[in-house]
Model the fold of this input.
Amino acid sequence: MRKHSKRYKTLLKSIVKDKKVELKEIIDLVKKNSTTKFNESIDVSLRINLKQSKGGDLSLRTVVKLPNGSGKKSKVAVLCEPDKIAEAKKSGAEIVGSDDLIEKISAGKFDFTKLVCTPAMMGKIGKHGKVLGPKGLMPNPKLGTVTNDIIKTVKDIKTGLVEIRNDKDGNLASTIGRKSFSNEQLLENYRHFVDSVKKEKPDTIKGEFIKNIFITSTMGISYKIRAK
Done:
């Protein structure tokens, strides 16, 4: 029989059943449940309606700029033309390169969490899409990672730009901060995130776009939030 830790048993006591709890109280509960020694991530999970009245199921993939940042550190690499390397280094990116960076990528060296690419270099990086894509590292114009404005893009990534993408069942998730954030910062990030997702609802989907919303911390328990 599986044994649960003392910490887990304590967390179970804070489960809310058959009771309407305000969002502010839930945020407070989630933070109180973040009892580990590290700075846990506060995460929101949504279930969206994929069924369109015309055509196939919706596939949502976009980015959201959290007003208070995500608290997540990103190691950014910039792939650009040689004459833009100096600009890229000023952007704050940890890794900058041109053909030399492509050689490292082709050798399977992915020492970064985000890859920004200028349009002129996309032709060279395209053949590595089968390797970069599954790792979520392939630059994409829709996500803002294919750009000539290197400085702005790197700054956005480092100050709270999060990528969201639904799975085949309509689930999507994102961090909205860390337990070290104030309740007000988390509330603002949460509301901005949910509002941003709602704005992505196409006219071909009828009824409520967001079906369910849950919020939790990395090692905590989740709480259901009313979508309306």
Remarks:
- The radius of gyration is 20 Å.
